[in-house]
Amino acid sequence: MGFWCPSWTSNPVLPARSRQGGFDSHTLPPAFVMKGTEMKITHYSFGKIVINGNEYTQDIIVFHDSVFPSWWRKQGHSLCIEDLGEVLKKDVKILVVGTGAYERMQVPQSLIEELKQRGIETFVYETEKAVAVFNQLLAEGKAVAGAFHLTC
Fold it and tell me: Can you give the pTM of this predicted structure?
């Protein structure tokens, strides 16, 4: 039994859609910012996440006030410190990682330790649970970011 995972394709930029206006990842700035608005995730299902009414179909990093769409990792299903450059630029104290619906993305213990040394506590869950944890921590006013693998 096999399955297809869109992150295995060679095209790192797949379109994101908005229910309000139809933007795509080619026209977005590197970080899509909505001033004065917290980024509430209202839906996740395999290959799709909805944040403040905007639908994204590519892996994504979410901050309290912005999203980094079309997040692409250096080693595909293995997370490394280079993949988290956007997170390291911000004052993040907690990182919630969603490893996919089937937990295919690996987060090495050495990376968790390196983030801890940089003052970032890391939680790793399958993506549906990671979304719930991210929303909870955000509601509590924590300095949190979420890095979500949306498919496998």
Answer: 0.79
